[in-house]
Amino acid sequence: MNNEATELPIIGGVPIGTIIAFAGEYNKIPAGWYECDGRELSKDAFPDLFQAIGTVWGGSGIPSFYLPDLRGMFLRGVSGDSDNDPDKTTRSSPRSEPSGNPGNNGNLVGSIQYDAFQGHRHGISWSHGSPSYGGPNNTDSGDERNGHYFTELTITNPINDGTNGEPRTAKETRSKNAYIYYIIKVTR
Fold first, then answer.
1. Whole-angstrom Cα distance, residue 160 to residue 128?
2. Closest by alpha carbon to 88, among 76, 103, 98, 74?
3. Contact in structure between 76 and 59 (CB atoms under 8 Å)
4. What is the 3-state secondary structure (H, E, C) of 13-68?
5. pLDDT tens-place string over residues 148-166
6. pLDDT score for 8
7. Of the candidates 69, 72, 62, 59, which has an alpha carbon nearest to the alpha carbon of residue 19?
8. What is the overall mean pLDDT for the chain?
9. Is 188 helix (H, G, I), strand (E, B) or coil?
10. pLDDT tens sequence across 88-105
């Protein structure tokens, strides 16, 4: 990675383009900071910020560029030459623009990954009765392999295993989290 220092404006010890977690309400975001909401900004109106972040979050720079849109997102450090992100080369651009620059992809700042669940398998076993499933997705067409009869099986409603508590389900895989505003230093 390139570690050459670039002279960027620093205001009160904070470089333009710095992102921080802000625990106050939206109407309390300090002057000189904007929410990381993906808004389009003019390169001419925000030259220092453009110098700091350029078009890594999208835009052509002629005349505009975009702030990062971090609403509902977790932040992750660029993997660089480490193997901490095994999918670092397949990361996506933050914007889908038919023309112009959608922003960085791959192993670069500004790239994003969508939610995912690590590939895995579940073992299902039974000891008595017919190895068929009589649930709502049961079909009469099964598959016989090595003397065993298989039919479509849908697993729903995870249950308590008696040790680890009640499983929580949702529309995404996520860790326990708290809402904040990510804000970015945009002006002096």
1. 23
2. 76
3. no
4. CEECCCEEEECCCHHHCCCCEEECECCEEECCCCHHHHHHHCCCCCCCCCCEEECC
5. 555 556 666 777 888 888 8
6. 73
7. 69
8. 82
9. coil
10. 999 999 988 766 789 999
The structure tokens listed for 20 are 């921080």
Q: How far apart are CA 19 and CA 35, in angstroms?
A: 9
88 near 107, Cβ under 8 Å?
A: yes
CA distance between the termini of the chain = 28
Pairing of strands 143-145, 148-150: antiparallel
Work out the number of other CB atoms within 10 angstroms of the CB of residue 58.
24
- Here the contacts of 169-173 (C-beta below 8 Å, separation 24 or greater) are 172/115, 173/115, 173/116, 173/117
Residue range 111-147, pLDDT digits in tens: 999 888 887 776 665 555 554 444 444 444 455 555 5
Cis peptide bond N-terminal to 167, omega within 30: no
DSSP 98-166: SSS-----SSSTT-B---------------SS-S---STT--S--EEETTEEE------S----SSS-P
